Amino acid sequence: MTGAPSEAARRLARAQRALRRRGLDALIVHDRSNLFYLTGFRGSLGYLLATPREASLLVDGRYIESAGESVRHCKVELFEKIAPSLEKWRRERKPRRIGFEGSIAWNSWRQFSEAMPGTEWTESGDLVLEMRTVKSASEVAAIEASGRGRPRSTSETRSAPRPTAPAPTASRSIASSLRARPLRARITSRPIGRCGGANCC
């Protein structure tokens, strides 16, 4: 990688320093928003395998070309089935303590644990979340830029252009349609949100 590091590269470097502080050998990131935060990858499926010294982004065949072009601060690798890729990664790096996101689905967690038996797993979802609460100067500038040109007050929002069709006309049209086609509905007096069982609602 040449030139100044990207925002995602700086974030990943911070995450890797956090791994050292927590005594973790690696971190597996699967959440899409966290993946984008650390890598810039926008695909629907991917895995970031990060150690304090290196990081690999695993993607399937749909994204291997685009990810290889857009993600330059970590290695991009193709996977067909995640379990064999995790097994290979474990054999090469031999991590003992691995952080993972507690928000992952159960089937993903089972794949992780079966592919890497004997590993000590530590819930570390807060590691990235804590980072995301602290904004860099460039992030603050981007947030400020995105807000330019938007209404800044409730009064300005209320003055924004609205549909020109008068509401009474729409109401009369709906009422006329209902009279022409009687509506059959089941009415219940039970409070909403307090279901009474199989015959309720």
Write the layout of secondary structure elements.
Blueprint: H1 7-22, E1 26-29, H2 32-39, E2 47-50, E3 55-59, H3 64-70, E4 75-78, H4 82-93, E5 97-100, H5 106-115, E6 120-123, H6 125-132, H7 137-147, H8 154-158, H9 167-180
Parallel strand pairs: 1-5, 3-4, 5-6
Antiparallel strand pairs: 1-2, 2-3
Helix pairs in contact: 1-2, 4-5
What would you give as the CATH superfamily of the domain at 7-138?
A: Creatinase/prolidase N-terminal domain
The poorly predicted ranges are: 155-175, 181-201
Distance between the termini: 60 Å
Mean pLDDT: 79
Q: Name the overall outline.
A: globular
CATH fold group of the domain at 7-138: Creatine Amidinohydrolase, Chain A, domain 1
Instruction: Quickly name the level 1 CATH class of the domain at 7-138.
Output: Alpha Beta
Instruction: Please give the largest β-sheet.
Output: 6 strands, mixed
Counting helices, strands and paired strands, the structural category is alpha/beta
- The percent of residues in helical segments reads 40-55%
Question: Number of DSSP helices?
Answer: 9
Beta strand count: 6
Following the backbone from N to C, one meets helices and strands in this order, namely HEHEEHEHEHEHHHH
Corresponding CATH architecture of the domain at 7-138 = 3-Layer(aba) Sandwich
**Spatial sequence of strands, sheet with the most strands:** 4-3-2-1-5-6
The Cα radius of gyration reads 26 Å
Strand content bin:
5-15%
